[in-house]
Specification:
Helix Hairpins; 4 helices; elongated; mainly alpha; about 85% helix
Length: about 140
């Protein structure tokens, strides 16, 4: 039990939640790319460079430059297409999602502030028109 507590002291990492999320997203993407690269290397007999290139094109939805020759390679590439695109999109969402959410929130606050200004200006114009019309009424009465 004491050994586990000592080990826990070293395992706990001081990263912020955003940095942890980013690290996990990148590790997920790297793991998918490694599995896909190794699988294509073994099934198709491609070099590691060709396999990495194929997987990177697959994960970014650009479409591969080369088509696997074997049926097993085609099935593996199909499965990896779904997994790698999902991993790439999830990674992008985990990494850029909080920043995008913050920008959206700031944009909404800005728009609401501008809308309040416009309403206030509109009320001010109505009040000044009402004052002018009431002054005209006083002028007419004289």
């Amino acid at each position: 039990m004491a050994a586990i507590l000592r080990l826990r002291r070293y395992v706990v990492h001081p990263l912020s939640p955003f940095k942890k999320r980013t690290l996990y997203a990148l590790l997920l993407l790297a793991a998918v790319m490694i599995v896909g690269t190794e699988g294509l290397h073994l099934i198709e007999g491609w070099s590691y460079i060709d396999s990495v290139y194929f997987m990177s094109l697959l994960a970014t939805t650009q479409g591969p430059a080369e088509i696997p020759r074997t049926d097993a390679g085609k099935i593996f590439a199909s499965i990896m297409a779904f997994v790698s695109v999902g991993a790439a999109l999830s990674s992008a969402a985990f990494i850029f999602g909080p920043a995008f959410g913050k920008l959206m929130k700031e944009g909404i606050f800005f728009l609401e502030k501008e809308e309040r200004k416009m309403r206030h200006m509109g009320r001010h114009k109505e009040e000044s028109r009402n004052r002018e019309s009431s002054e005209e009424d006083w002028d007419d009465q004289e």
